[in-house]
Amino acid sequence: MMTTLRDAWRTAVPDMNDRHGPLPPLMILLTVVTGLVDAFSYLVLGHVFVANMTGNVVFAGFATAGTPGFSLSATAVAVGAFAAGAFFGGRIRYTWSHRARILFLAVALQSLVVASAFLVGAASSSPIEARSRYLLIALLGLGMGVQNAAARALAVPDLTTTVLTLTIVGTAADSRLAGGPGAKAGRRLLSIAAMFLGGLIGALVLRHGHQVLPLLLATLLLATCCGVAWRFTRSSAPWTQPL
User: Fold this and answer.
1) SS (H, E, C) 106-166
2) Are 43 and 202 in contact (CB under 8 A)?
3) 156 lies in which domain range?
4) What is the pTM of this model?
């Protein structure tokens, strides 16, 4: 237990001389953003995710089978926008090798897109009409694609900011009870908790009638992450160098 808590602490408050410097807590912050944004997309925009594409592929199957409540067109827009965002994130990755600059540019772009989605949502009626719904799906899918591409480029172990399947598998399969080393359990559990927290907060504020508050909160968290990354864009610390 103490090892797990120590690992979680080192993730939240990392050694700046570590190979990943301040990136772990920033990845945790982006994981909370994922929970907030997907809470909004699933609960407000219908049965569609803008961050978790695995779920969308399954939803596409449901929609194709004619299952009520699932839209093939909405799913297609989400997947297409996410892929476009990943493309732009890839362009950032292959243009810059400085890890802080990659994070700053990616999150700055994502912040603009999510802030735009907030403005669109704030100007829309409740429930959101079809035209605004598809625009919101496209904007948020684009932003989450950029985030995922950046997380992939930064490659902080066990902190993908979106996909938790392998995180959960690693936590269980590498546990001491399974005969494994039990390494990184704290970091993995912190990542899972961050996603849960984002989803919980998003759902709670939506239940109380604040339709676009999850997007405002996501924008504020992204702006915070962007500001921290900006501080290191001219740093030559070891963690800023390519892996």
Assistant:
1) HHHHHHHHHHHHHHHHHHCCCCCCHHHHHHHHHHHHHHHHHHHHHHHHHCCCCCCCCCCHH
2) yes
3) 2-240
4) 0.94
Helix (H, G, I), strand (E, B) or coil at 212: coil
Q: How many domains does the chain have?
A: 1
CATH code at position 177:
1.20.1250
Residue type (1 letter), 29: L
Residuewise pLDDT in 10s, the chain (243 residues): 677 777 777 888 888 888 999 999 999 999 999 999 999 999 999 999 999 999 999 999 999 999 998 999 999 999 999 999 999 999 999 999 999 999 999 999 999 999 999 999 999 887 888 889 999 999 999 999 999 999 999 999 989 998 887 777 767 767 677 666 766 777 888 999 999 999 999 999 999 988 999 999 999 999 999 999 999 999 999 999 998
CA angle 72, 149, 82 (to 5 degrees): 15
Residue (of 197, 161, 199, 131) closest to 25 by Cα position? 161
